[in-house]
Each structure stands twice: as C-alpha cells, then as structure tokens.
Amino acid sequence: MITQKIIIVIVTYNGMPWIDKCLRSSSNFKVIVVDNCSSDGTSDHIKSNYPDVELIQQQKNLGFGAANNIGISKALREGADFVFLLNQDAYLEEGVLEKMIDVAKKNPEYGVLSPIHLKGNGRGLEPVFSYYLHKENDNGLFSDLILQKSTKDIYDISMVNAAAWLIPRKTFETIGGFQPLFFLYGEDDNYCQRVWYHGFKVGVVVNCFIRHDSNNNYHIYPVKGTKKYYEKFLNRIKVDYADVNSERYKRVKNLGSFYFKKAIVSLFQNDFESFKANLKKREIVNGLDFAKQIEKDRAKGMHYL
User: Fold this and answer.
1) Is there a single domain that holds both residue 237 and residue 147?
2) In this prediction, what percent of the chain has a pLDDT beyond 90?
3) Are residues 197 and 292 in the same domain?
4) Range of the domain at 190
5) Cα 264 from Cα 262, distance rounded (Å)
6) Residues 219 and 126: beta-carbon distance below 8 Å
7) Alpha-carbon span 9 to 83, nearest angstrom
8) Who is most buried in 147, 180, 210, 273, counting CB within 10 A?
9) pLDDT classification of 137: cutoffs 50, 70, 90
10) Distance, CA of 288 to CA of 253 (rounded, Å)
11) How far apart are CA 245 and CA 235, in angstroms?
C-alpha cells in the first residue's frame, strides 16, 4: 500500500488513439492532464469520460517540457511526494507504481527512476528504450540477464527517455523542471544531465514494466536539408553544449566558423547539398549562448516551475 502521495502527470497532444488505454491504466491514482491545444477532441473526450481527471487546457502547443512543468507545479502545490510523468501513448502494468515507490523509498539517492519500457503489445523492449540501454555498456544489466545472474533492483543509466519517470519531490526542489530551451526531444537528456550534476542518480527498475505504444522513429536520421533534419541538429547542439557537467558551452561561439569552413570544403568537393546544409547550420548556431542557462541550472532551486 502506498502511503506517500503520488500524482501522475500526462501531457496530451492529439492523443485520441491512446488516451483511453492510458487513463484506464492510471485510474487508481490522481491524474493531472495538461493538453497542448489538441485539435482531435482529446480535451472534450477527457472532460466527458474522465471526470476525476484534472484537465489543464492550453491555448497553444507549449511543447513537452513546458507543459509537463505546468502539471508538475500543480502536483507539487497539491502536496505530491512523488510525481510520475507518463506519456499519452504509454500504459501502466498492474502494480508498477507500488513497486517503484517501494524501491524509491529504499534508494533515496535516485532523482529519476524509470520502469522497463515494453512495446505497446508487450512483446519485447520498446526500441528507443532499448537504444538507451545499449548505450550503457558498463552498467551490467544485459550481462546479468544473459548470464542468468540475480539482477539488482536498480541499474544506473546516464539517461533514459521520459515516457515514464518517477520523480521524488526533493528532485524538483533541488533541480526544478524541464529546461525551456527544448520544445520537443532533448529535454529529457538535459534533465538527466542536471540530475547527475546535483548529486542524484538516474536508474532503471528492472522488475517494473510499462507499455509504450510509440512507433517512435526519432532515432532514424531525417533527410538532409529537411525541417526535421535541422530541428534534430539544433536539439543535438543544445543537448551537447548546454550540459551542466561540462565546459563545452564556452566553445559554442566557435561553431559558426566551424560550419562555415565545412561549407567551403563541401563547395570545393562539388557537394552542393552539403554546402547548403553547412551554411544553414552556421546560420542556426550563430548567436547561440548557453552561459546563463548553465549558471542557472548549476544553482539549486525550483527553476522553471
């Protein structure tokens, strides 16, 4: 039995394909939904069918991080000891939060805990979650599973996507919410960087599961020159150069000349596609300055909430 107050925060945007299954899986808990100005009737559907859900409607799409910050702030004002961030396309397996709260209480050094993410049909790991696990070559999880060793309750991980995060109140009081630099994607990387910087850990709880019906193709690299290509490029720059754990932010001003030189090289190689792409990248990075964000994020406080 959970004695601490836990509130689930779900951000929705045109979530009709998933929202019923998501909310039904969360029905044993207090739920706050922040709707990012959906155009498919998500808000009206929630109001009509889920009267116990607290719905906060936005007049425009604020993005994933900013909308979550609104829900997190509301949950904390209502006295939440833990906030569980859940994607609109993710579903809780029975008993998962009870197990995770128990693990979190025994391991207060963790600022973010994630369950295992299964595919929507429950058959195998969700691809993006699997990608992050495979990046952690030294945390021992795969070795323990393959060698049939007894697994630990938690395995440390540098970053795990924010489809299902259990976050104790003290994390928000120390670090704050999501960094407004990010609209969609990258905000979870940045948050995990800040968690580690402030002395907490990020971990995966191995005997807890959610299903994530993502069909997520974010790690498929978009076609060069497209809008998504440049959005992903800028997100990667932000993740790498706004990292509170490094001094790389001091070198961001050099990126403009770097991409200009790359453009010139491409021109001499008659690679006009890369020439145009590198000039566009130069335009994007010129004027970037993360010094103020780094200074703020290195200080303790409930930033952005």
Assistant:
1) no
2) 81
3) no
4) 6-212
5) 5
6) no
7) 7
8) 210
9) low
10) 7
11) 17
Kindly state whether residue 1 falls inside one of the protein's structural domains: no
pLDDT, tens only, 203-231: 999 989 999 998 755 556 788 889 999 99
- Three-class HEC string of 172-204: HHHHCCCCCCCCCCCHHHHHHHHHHHCCCEEEE
| Residue 221 falls inside a structural domain | no
Calculate the CA dihedral of residues 137, 141, 145, 146 and round it to 10 degrees.
Answer: 10
Q: What is the pTM of this model?
A: 0.93
Contact 28, 4 (CB under 8 A): no
For residue 133, give the CATH number of its domain.
3.90.550.10
Q: Which helix (H) or strand (E) holds 112?
A: strand 110-119
Could you give the dihedral angle defined by the CA atoms of residues 18, 20, 26 and 27, in that order, rounded to the nearest 10 degrees? 180
Which of 212, 246, 268 is a domain's end point?
212
Same-domain pairing of 208 and 294: no
State how far Cα 212 lies from the chain centre: 13
Radius of gyration of the chain (CA): 20
Check whether residue 59 and residue 24 sit in a common domain: yes
Residues 242 and 123 in one domain: no
Domain boundary among 212, 237, 261: 212
Half-sphere exposure of 157 (CA within 13 A, CB side): 28
The total number of structural domains that make up the chain: 2
